[in-house]
Amino acid sequence: MEKYIYELTEKVRDYECDLQGIVNNANYQHYLAHTRHEFLETRGVSFAELHQKGIDTVVARLTMAFKTPLACGDEWVSKLYLVKEGIKYVFYQDIFRKSDMKLSVKASVEVVCIVNGRLSASEEVDQLLAPCLE
């Protein structure tokens, strides 16, 4: 069992679906990003404030495995947990169809910090996320 530390529930909107009536694959990236951003807000992380300090967090690598498609009107639950590997943070994220909790997408998202224009560790981000790390 995964060690989730955050979850978010949302609903598929009709414009997110393709002609097949299922969520277009690109929209899952939006779901994953929205979940990370909501999670970070609960930790007091403000992207605007970090940017003003010269710190930007950016996705360096993203992998997704599609399992069960979501369709218009489906509610979904996005769950995540976080590990730190060197200077990168790895968000492990799973999206489930809420009605039966079938896995829809399994993803890992590697995030790095750019500090004053250079790839670097960020003490401030480390402190903000330390309580969330495995």
Written account of the structure:
This protein is an alpha+beta fold. Helix content is 23%, strand content 41%. It has three helices and six strands. The chain has helices at 25-42, 47-52, 123-129, and strands at 6-11, 55-66, 75-85, 88-97, 102-115, 118-119. Strands 1, 2, 3, 4, 5 and 6 form a six-stranded antiparallel beta sheet that branches. The longest helix has 18 residues, at 25-42.
In short, what is this structure?
This protein is α+β, with helices and mostly antiparallel strands and 134 residues long. 23% of the residues lie in helices and 41% in strands.
List keywords for this structure.
134 residues; alpha+beta; 6-stranded antiparallel sheet; 3 helices; 41% strand; elongated
